[in-house]
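$ fold --in a.seq
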Amino acid sequence: MNELPAIEVVYDALNALYHNPDPISKERASQWLGDLQKSIFAWKIADQLLHVKKDMESCYFGAQTLRTKIQFAFHELPSEAHNSLRDSMLNHLRQINEHTNTVIVTQLCLALADLLLQMTSWKTPIQDLIQTFGPKNNFETTHIWPLLEVLTVLPEEMGSRTLRLGANRRSEVLKLFAGSTENVLHLLDSCLTIPSSDRLIGVRLLRCFSSWVHLQAVTLHQLTSCATLGHVFATLSSHHSTPLLHEAASDAVCALLQVVADQENEDNTTQNGQLTSTLNELRTLEDSLVQSIKNLEPAYHLAVAEEDTEKALNYCRVFTEIAEALLHRMLESTKNNNGTMNTSNLFGLLDLVLTCVGHHDYEVAEITFGFWYKLSEDLYHANDDDRTIKFKPYIERLIGAVCRHCQMEPDHEGVLEESDDFAGFRSRVSELVKDVVFIVGSASVFKHCFYSIHGQNNLPWEVTESALFIMQAVAKNILPDENEVVQSVVESLLQVPESAHAAVRFTTLLLLGELGEWMDKHPAVVEPVLHCVLRSINDPSLAVAASNSLEAITSICRDHVKSHFDILLQVVSALVTLPIPTETAVRVVKGVTKVCSRLPDHQIADALHQLCKIHVDELTRICQVENQSKVVAKTSSDPVYWLDRLASIFRNLSVNAKKSEQHPCQLAITFTWPCLSMTLDKFQTDRRVMERCCRCLRFALRLIGHQSAPLLQPLVTQMVRLYNAHHHSCFLYLASILVDEYGSENDCIGGLISMLEALLPRAFQLLQEPQGLSHNPDIVDDLFRLFARFL
């Protein structure tokens, strides 16, 4: 833009942008206005628009333009123009009244804040703003709104990455803020006594307080003597506080508690056994905060009684934040616990947090999870049993409370969908329990949950299921030689009738799977558990749980289920009909493969052949279909569906074969090769299929090593042909596997070098194209690996 446009032209463009129904006109107007904002003329145009105040759209555009120019193009103005810009900005703020649009006010205040941060010649900006816009003797409050808004966004803009303040300027501004905190706090205190018709003035005041506290420029002494802090707690305690005001007060307390936490984490040392003055001030503030926050408990219970979940969430945030802020002090107090009131007060914070965990809404309880993670982490690293045991009663209450939260609705039918929000919450509960259970002991939790439901014939199904769910979370930690309760648990689980609620049966199956290591040491229960799982696997609602349990049993207890290999083969064959994720099916194949590894040597070859044949037959059928458009990813028509299963077989089979004897897996791999070769040819343009096929071949080659030599010539020939046609880098990776396996064989070296010579021209051709290296990172990686293997 080469010349200053007339103001009428700007109005026309804005009118087209906001009101013209023609999308092409809108696009042109948007482009033109964007160019205007980038030009040097934007300064003057924005100022004019704000002075004229024709309509809301033009005022917003003017304010937003001014903010953008100050933020990104302040360097365009000569230093002698800074004062003029500041005065103009202040004049615009003076025009704000209760009818001014909030978005415009925000933009103007952000613009002034960015100007203040960059204008080095303005030496006392905050004092000037307070003197200009602060309340006067006549209690004029018109300008308090923009004043509080500017003071709120100032500390926030300090952390803005788009505002390119140098380190020296940041340091200067921080000193300026530190020297102005007394003025700001005095302003906030004085605003408390001024009547105002603006219902949001209280919210703005608290947000301003939070912003300055978060900046950490306010001293501990200033905080303890600040009337606004008392007002914050009065607001939190008041039954009549509006939701916005209550949330702002909660944010203010949380900001303050973050400062306390940061101070606690600093190296506050003592001098000659006495607290330093700073630490003494910190302790005084902390003790005051503890008492003030404890006094909020009745207000929390009132919010619960009135089903005001928003306020309950706010209280929970505050209770959790102070517990986390003082966690270090709480832990230190356990070193020499003499029953002092101070230690009792600190541990009373845990009671507050647990009160929130008991809230009927699980979203309130979940707010506390971060604190419990932090507590468990600190106790784990401290590795002090005497300290840990003091927290045991609180963790027992925590686990009991989250167990109740995990109860489904009594009228819920079927099992929870994985995408359900409540299922997500239960998953997070499971992770939390696993993290904290060492404090109370897994066996203790396991027994407590079991005894709470054992023999209770009339117990609601959802209570039983939630107890089993918590038991499942800790079951893997149960020692394999445990002989007190697990036997009874397994027997009870095997007696769960088919008429039981589907969710109870689902969790029962998952729990049985988690007890795999215990069952491996107690083989008498393996067969009945296997039969229980196999009976359930064809039930659509239980198939996922049964499959997961089957994978665990076959992987861990493989020595005890090898006599059932024929039945397991039937399960593998039927996997395609089960409503389970592909990943789950692959894990089942993995478990059955591990059972195959435990068969007698003379049976492995035939067993593996049968296991592979299930997948080879399906792959062959897919390759014989003429129309590839019928291939649907992640279904049984997708070759990847079967290639991943084959890869799982070759990857997880573990056989000790003598080099002088034929490898028991060689025949199965030789049988599989024609199908894999056909797949490579049929889907040669599909990179995803090529990668999975090469992955399958990689595990097959690794499995039988040098005994794959008969496949070497046809494999290399096909690899070279397909790579030169479609340059899939996975062939380079597979070539490196061949070098690794056969590089030490003198008879193979010539063939491997010929393979390299055949692959390199096409690879180098791709890398020599414009941006070749950056566009083909996989080829670069795989070539480097291939060269390294040759060397």
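$ fold --in b.seq
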Amino acid sequence: MAASNGDSMQHSIGAQLSLFDDLDSVNNVENIQNNNEPSVNGKFASTIQSTKQSHDVTSDLSESNTFSSIADFDNWIAKLEPSDSDAMQLAKLDPSLLTTEQGARLWAKLAAWAQADQIAYYVDDSPTSSDAAYDARIRFLSALESTFPILDTPQSPTHRVGGTFSNDFAPVRHPSRMMSLDDVFSIDELKSWYNSIIRDLQWPENKPLPMTCEVKIDGLALNLIYRNGTLEQGLTRGDGVTGEDISLNVRTIEEIPTQLHGEDPDDIPEFVEIRGEVFMKWADFRKLNIEQEDLGKPAFANPRNAAAGSLRQKDPRITSTRRLSFIAHGLGNLKWKDLAQSGGESNAHAQTSFNQSDAYELYKKWGVPISPYTRKVTSFEQIEDMIDYYGEHRNTIIHALDGIVVKVDDRALQKKLGATSRAPRWAIAYKYPPEEVNTRLKDIVVQVGRTGRVTPVAVLEPVTVAGSTISRTTLHNPYEVEHKGVLIGDTVVVRKAGDVIPELVGPVLKYRNGRENELKKFVMPEYCPSCGTKLAPTKEGDKDIRCPNVENCPAQLTERIINLASRQAFDIENLGEASALALTNPEDSRPITSKVYIEDKSISKIVVERGSSNPPILPESNCDLPAPQTPVLTSEADIFNLSANDLRNVKVWKEIPLVEEWEEVGKDGKLKKRSKKIGGSGLWRQVSAFWTRPLEATRRKSNDDSKDSNDYSNSNDFSSDESNESFNPNYQMFEVPVDAYVTKLVEKKIRINNILKTVEAPEYTRPSETTRAMLEEIAQKGKSAPLWRVLVALSIRRLGPPTARLIAARFGSIENIANATIEDLTQIDGVGPEIAQAVFDWFEKSKDSNDWRSEVLRKWKEAGVVGNDSAQSNNLEQTLSGKTVVVTGSLEDFTRDSAKEAIVSRGGKAASSVSKKTYCVIVGANAGSKEAKAEELGIPMLNENQFKILLKTGSVESALKNDITLDSQSEL
């Protein structure tokens, strides 16, 4: 296709697992057991979440799909991991050979991983799996649900479009559902879909069926809502029902008209939803990455990430600089003006049925961009021609290609074919196989994560794959390196499955011949490369190797700072990876010898002749390396106590680049200077990480145009100047910011009373603009962050935003969570035993005043970082303690999540399925099968008003007795 606000999605999986908890008490439990198979119960569901064993499952799976015993297959399921390679093996399995219990276990694992993929892709704009792996999981989940219907529920990832909305933008319901597309990955699958369309429509064999063939844009789906021709809103897809309102950012995209154009006012509809894709053209993507590099910021991995990150900026001014593009490819609701009501003739448009391709012609007239690559086809052979053509010419397209979309053109036929719960039946997306290229594996290094996990990383000869340059890719763990069989120095195959996640596929064995002596086997280090602590798995059998030095390992601290600043935690936009490293480990890139150290600060680049094959002339080093620095942060405990002055002397090591410079005539006919970085010189220098380079103070001048402003005697009275507060009063002749540090005074001649005089002018350095913004964000966002974000920022292993939200809603304060038992935590629907144990262990250790965790909590509390919802704490009366409540359908004053939080925060359990244990069911609009199930079991059913009474009283009887209309704004 790591998570900020995908909690409702994750919660639905947690809730789905509770289905298995209730199976033994549901009447039809006998129907899912065969041959004395054990029932799927709560203990079993717990096992599902905790299985992580040390083995590569793909080696166990033969082409024959056979195992010598049920135990063998159970072992295979236990060892299954969320890796791309394991996902691709699922196609070899036949679900009908599984027992019900095995099917349920496998479903639970795959559903959780698929949902995590959806959150990463749709919510965080940061995919963690390849499209191929995600699709493999979804396809196998569908097969499991077909084989075991009890697994097929509305909460399944197979029925979801993907994303949930975040808190950064207001959630808005789409006027009509915004669906996704089903994917196929082979011509045979596409032909099968095509034949099913012919069959379902009972289409005559020799009659052409008009379809459209469109190139699939790899971008961000957008719903544009126009009322009477004026752009009213721009919404992201979200979960297909509710999206995010990003209208301000959408209005900055030049290609999206704020007003639809028409030759006649009647040509403009009263209301229309135009669906399309926001993307970044290859040329604009390359320009943006050059700009990012010039600013010292990380480059974007691919155009989709760049487009998504740009469109979701909180500051529309940033979005406006990103050169985003838009192409329309779909139509939602459409309503033409009723001219008859105003005394005119009926609207001709309203009387005309039109096709998909007609809609595109309308868009063109309205000034809405459409794809130049769309074709109308009438046969399957023409579809294949389109696929073949763009498979060969994908590099000629102005944007990233994600496949070919085929749609039935006639909208009346589209309506007849209908849709599944997540995708239309009248359209399909064909995905091309991932692009693969060869490159050299230069090295395998290891990196240490925030929880101590040590991961091998492949260092590659930079190579372009699917439009972006790849120089590193993860190898996950030592077993993965061994399984792939790669050696350092190998020529290897690299691909970006789904054009997103780079993956090292394996070695090209034929290139080893005669080079065996040059190749080297990777050996996992015995000691942490960051702190020198001996590495070991957490427990016997674990695949993951960890550094146990949680408190003092610089690499782990760096990653924890990155985590607490991330979107899913405090969301400190100006505290990125480079700043985190400078705060915690400024000597990270320190050279090992003074021979490559350049002290001369004026040497920031080494210019080489363009196109020259001669080696560059490098300056010589003639000084010792400076003493190592002590990091500003040795614990995240002090992050909220940082001051600008703390950062003044922090320096980081930068390699001096080799740069080609030349001149060329620009489009305006003028000579332009051009430059291009072509590599590193191997020489290093130190630069300030957070403060500016020394700046020369400018002389203050009068605003009185009638006087000679170059003469200081005409500008020495600034007593009424409001800018006085911004400048240091000790240097009245010069503009020295109040937050600046004067490094030295230099002689300078200025005119006073028309006489040149020598004065001492200050040179100064000050916190950079980014540093000032970072410190301001740290102070503000720490104090204003809700409790769940504080929990995520603590970097507790396995605890992500979805579960943190549930825990925060249940306990309401850090103190309450610290005092919770494992049993208290596992009672929360969606919190499994492993997460509960991890949270309990973290807070239990924090009770030791000598433990670093204790210091973190204490100093954060002193800084006012306690979770802004903790100030009120959870003082709600526990009216639903011990009671299980199910919510079904849509409510007016509650989202699905807020209804569940209302239940949980009052001590209840918000379940996703109805059983005899259910206390009551809250029934909203468009309720599903749960309403029928509640009626069958005799479970009390309440409407929304009664639900509000239930929250106050905890009594079904009271709610049923006092059904009155409440103020929707009343405090609950």
